[in-house]
Design goal:
The protein is built from eleven helices and no strands. The protein is mainly alpha-helical. The mean pLDDT is 91.
């Protein structure tokens, strides 16, 4: 096997591992997958998720479904595709931040039971996504891809920028995969090009620039806020960064 063939085999194996780790999309059984670098492919997986949601939304629109019902179904499928992985992080993080004693926050976040604050955070987030999508009418497939991509770019930015608070955990190995800001640049370029499609499709330069600025700014601020509150990040806060970046990104786009 040549070096090029080995490279392709390794890349495809890592992409498959990323799909399995970040989604509930069924794949054939694959042996000896390496999950150590799945974080590198998170924004790409986000684009795949957004693309699936965009296709589903387009199909429902073709059938004449009302926009509110369609948006609620899209958000429901969104949860199903990710298996609630990141939404669980939202709830655990909210429960932890609700604790006044900073020393107990991590232990509360590690508890699998969902508290009142976690439930309220999940409800608020799903309402924001659904209502924001209802107010977006043009190129919804592109908006969904951008939201999923920027959410996961925020995750790798938080991994690169802030310390990990646990010695072990479901997000600990991400810190080994994303070591510097350079690891965030390829996805930043990819997402900026995705926003540029708005210029080619509808000649909306302002909207395209707004998508890029909003996505990158919200991703940065969300990760910084959780770091400010906790002094670092965990696997749960990585998931919270993804979800809140997606929701707030959609909200900002309604103003554009």
């Amino acid at each position: 096997m040549t070096n090029e063939e080995q490279w392709w085999k390794k890349s495809l194996s890592q992409i498959a591992a990323s799909v399995i780790f970040y989604t509930a999309i069924p794949l054939p059984y694959l042996d000896k997958l390496d999950f150590s670098e799945v974080a590198r492919f998170a924004p790409m997986i986000g684009l795949v998720i957004g693309g699936i949601l965009g296709l589903f939304d387009t199909a429902m629109n073709y059938l004449g479904m009302a926009v509110l019902t369609r948006s609620a179904l899209v958000v429901s499928v969104w949860i199903a595709i990710t298996g609630g992985l990141h939404l669980d992080g939202v709830m655990d993080t909210a429960d932890g931040l609700a604790v006044g004693d900073k020393e107990r926050r991590l232990s509360v976040m590690a508890d699998s039971a969902t508290g009142a604050f976690g439930a309220m955070a999940a409800i608020a987030l799903l309402l924001l996504k659904t209502t924001a999508l209802t107010d977006i009418h043009q190129n919804r497939w592109l908006v969904l891809m951008a939201a999923c991509g920027w959410g996961r770019w925020g995750q790798i930015l938080a991994i690169a920028q802030y310390p990990y608070l646990k010695l072990t955990g479901k997000g600990a190995f991400h810190k080994e995969a994303i070591r510097s800001y350079k690891d965030c640049l390829p996805a930043l370029l990819l997402l900026s090009c995705l926003s540029g499609l708005e210029i080619l499709i509808d000649k909306r330069l302002f909207f395209a620039l707004g998508m890029t600025l909003a996505g990158s700014a919200i991703a940065f601020v969300t990760g910084a806020w959780f770091n400010y509150k906790l002094g670092g990040h965990t696997g749960d806060t990585y998931g919270a960064v993804v979800e809140w970046t997606e929701a707030l990104f959609l909200c900002v786009l309604t103003a554009l």
